[in-house]
Amino acid sequence: MTRDERLAALEQIANEVRACSACRLAEGRTRAVPGEGDPDTEVIFVGEGPGFNEDREGRPFVGRAGGLLVRLLGSIGWQRESVFITNVVKCRPPDNRDPEPDEIAACAPYLRRQLEVLDPAVVVTLGRYSMGTFMPGARIGQVHGTTRPADPSTGARDATVLAMYHPAAALRTPALERESYEDIARLAGILQRSRDRRAAAAAAAAVPSAEQAAGTVAASPTGAVATPAGAGAAQAPLGASIQTAEPPAPADAESQLTLF
Ligand code: URA
Ligand code: SF4
Prior knowledge:
CATH superfamily: Uracil-DNA glycosylase-like domain
Radius of gyration: 19 Å
Number of helices: 12
Bound molecules: uracil, iron/sulfur cluster
CATH class: Alpha Beta
Largest sheet: 6 strands, mixed
Structural class: alpha/beta
């Protein structure tokens, strides 16, 4: 998909969300909050649901929790405009109560479709409810700061999931805020490794047809990874959004990865 096609697809989803009445959260909302961000991004942040300020503005993470999210992103040199930010439920639960299972289930197709359009390399879950979608059965106190592969049934075809505490929880508890800075410090390295894995998979998929065309069989074990056509085609839209300061780097260069 081109950037314009992704933009149009995301806007289509957002329009459906704004008109949605599939669960009882529609009744209490002022504005639905579909989510926002760079359609070319490689990284999507998924929170729980809109709060008071988000409900008024129709935008995700614009209140106090959003302030911390922006500071967390800033600590690794990223800006909120460079990622995509959304929630498990798109309408505010009354009095900021937790979303209920049937509400999460009713809203899930919108998140799944957003993930299908964005095809992110990394999904960052913020809080328990978002973690529950991508790491069912996990406990946030144990898995925050860790990753696992996304189940493609979430809509994220080939992504790494990083679990983090919810910024609102981190605002209430200094220890969790400190750990959130440590967890997000891993993000650039996680992105790089996911990007490398996806490029290798795309190159490996591209090699057999090239070999068939040439009537040869692969001799080099490194050929799959090094094929520029496959890797370049796969990375072009991603590299346009989030660029590394250096070529694929060792893990200790994680903090040098920057956006734009
Ligand atoms: N908390 C969330 O989970 N999402 C928002 O958008 C804002 C606060
Ligand atoms: Fe529709 Fe989701 Fe809002 Fe429920 S929370 S009304 S499913 S958009």
